[in-house]
Amino acid sequence: MNIRELLSEKVKSAMNAAGIPAECQPMVAPAKKAGFGDYQANGAMAAAKKVGTNPRELAGKITDELELGSIADKVEIAGPGFINIHLNPAWLSEQLGNAERDPALAIRPAAEPQTVVVDYSSPNLAKEMHVGHLRSSIIGDALVRILSRLGHKVIRQNHVGDWGTQFGMLIAELEEQMADSDSASMALSDLEVFYQQAKAHFDREQAFADKARDYVVRLQSGDAKTLELWQSFKRVSLAHSADIYNKLNVTLSDEDVCGESFYNDDLAPLVSELQAQGLCQEDQGAQVVFLPELADKEGNPSPVIVQKQGGGFLYATTDLAAIRYRANTLHADRILYFIDARQSLHMQQVFTLARKAGFVDEHVSLEHHAFGTMMGADGKPFKTRSGGTVKLAALLDEAIERAAKVITDKNPDLADADDVARKVGIGAVKYADLCKTRTNDYVFNWDTMLSFEGNTAPYLQYAYTRVRSVFRKAEIEPVAVSGEIVLAQEQEKALAIKLLQLGEVLGQVADDALPHVLCTYLYDVASLFMRFYEACPILKSDVDPAMRASRLRICHAVSRTLETGLDMLGIEVSEQM
Ligand code: ARG
After folding, report:
1. Is the C-beta atom of 319 inside 6 A of ligand 1?
2. Which domains does the chain have, with CATH numbers?
3. What is the pTM of this model?
4. How far is ligand 1, taken at its centre, from the CA of residue 190, in Å?
5. Taking the CB of residue 539, how many other CB atoms lie within 10 A of it?
6. Which protein residue has the closest C-alpha to ligand 1 atom 7?
7. 447: which residues sit within 8 A by CB, 6+ positions away?
8. Best substitution site from 155, 325, 343, 350 to test ligand 1's pocket, by max atoms within 8 Å of Cβ?
9. pLDDT for 119-165, tens place per residue?
10. What is the three-class DSSP state of 565?
11. Bridge partners (DSSP) listed for residue 113
């Protein structure tokens, strides 16, 4: 149990003992400001309102009943009825000592493990992955790592766009180009260029356009040769994505691919079901559902086309089939979608309709975790100088190159400089994305993300090397340090409390899918470590051996916390940089 849960439980039973109704919550949280204790219980105010009494008096009754034993050494009431709890350094010392020796770093698995389906990355295979998929991949993967670490069963779903009329054109082009080149992968070495060639070909040549249309029909009717071409196109395109995932240290693999085509056979029955339920109606030859739940300001219901005139199905139809599969076949308790905010209406329509049609049980939580757009320095969506889409592979290579420069400037003799540059460059790109409030747009800036100062990956990776260097200088392995942790200085206590909050923070990120909360936390850890390091000598000759051992153990807890926290964000550390 983490500190917050422990205190919540204690305050809650004190509230019970004080006769406060059960629905009132203790509302325990870390104190926001210095001088107000370490944790605060703010539930007295709401409870007083409920029972119609004076909040400060009620807070007094709660504290009279509060039994914190050795956990706290002072409890006081402030303002209108805040209960400020000052934790006892001896108790904290013991907690941190246990955590430092615990292989799980005192991160407790969730009390009720869930099955969580996470839909992320999900590029369209017809084209190169772009920056929108970069955000989705990075943020989604952080959540996947955190949820798994907390003991949930996580099912990754890479809902790639691998179906639609454009594939007719692409296959036709592939067939022609393969006549001249040996392999599909040669023809498709540059997907973006290939797509443009196919499109130009389609617009220019009537015969080619007819062939492309014919391929769509053959694809849909399951013609073996056409399917084979389509498969080889998919294989090559997926290999492009896999390269990016590898470079990015994103955990998606081929097994997680469950693209749009997977649902093909389910689309016609799904529309029939909507018809049978009286949910969709014909409108100009198309099958449309009108959702009054999502009506616009004028009261017009929101239209969702599930089948086009002529029989074709749409993005929404596939997502409805997918949500049903995830809820009923994969048995998800939660389904998370990491998709650009511009698809919010689409997701709302899918969620509303899926519930209405009974495709998804009441208890299943449907969550679109939207994110803003990545902007260039000019304040417009991130593009190349000529206005094209930025190739992710090139962007990541540039990150590594730039990191290499920064690192050689700082430390020209570094061993393993290439490996460090890779970790720093990739870490910088990922962290710059993760540390911003997800829902906002953000400006992509090389200099800020690669800076060693401020809330950046290099700063945290560097802090990690600083801690590790203490052990190198001391010529001792962390496991060989014996002795108790004793929190004597104020800086040590503040650092210890922060370190003990890792599990709390991960739980919060798992619930809200806001990884920037973990970034802020790690930044706080690193900053508190720097304060501790300046104020509390470790290796100086006049430091008493017991105090040295205690501080070394604190250092070890710091390095493990930074390493684990960064790992949850998919960012690697190095011993030196
Ligand atoms: N392929 C889509 C795109 O590139 C994203 C898919 C997101 N997932 C989903 N279930 N709709 O915009």
Report:
1. yes
2. 3-87 (3.30.1360.70), 115-158+261-368 (3.40.50.620), 166-254 (no CATH)
3. 0.95
4. 22
5. 11
6. 122
7. none
8. 343
9. 999 999 998 888 889 999 999 999 999 999 999 999 999 999 999 98
10. helix
11. none
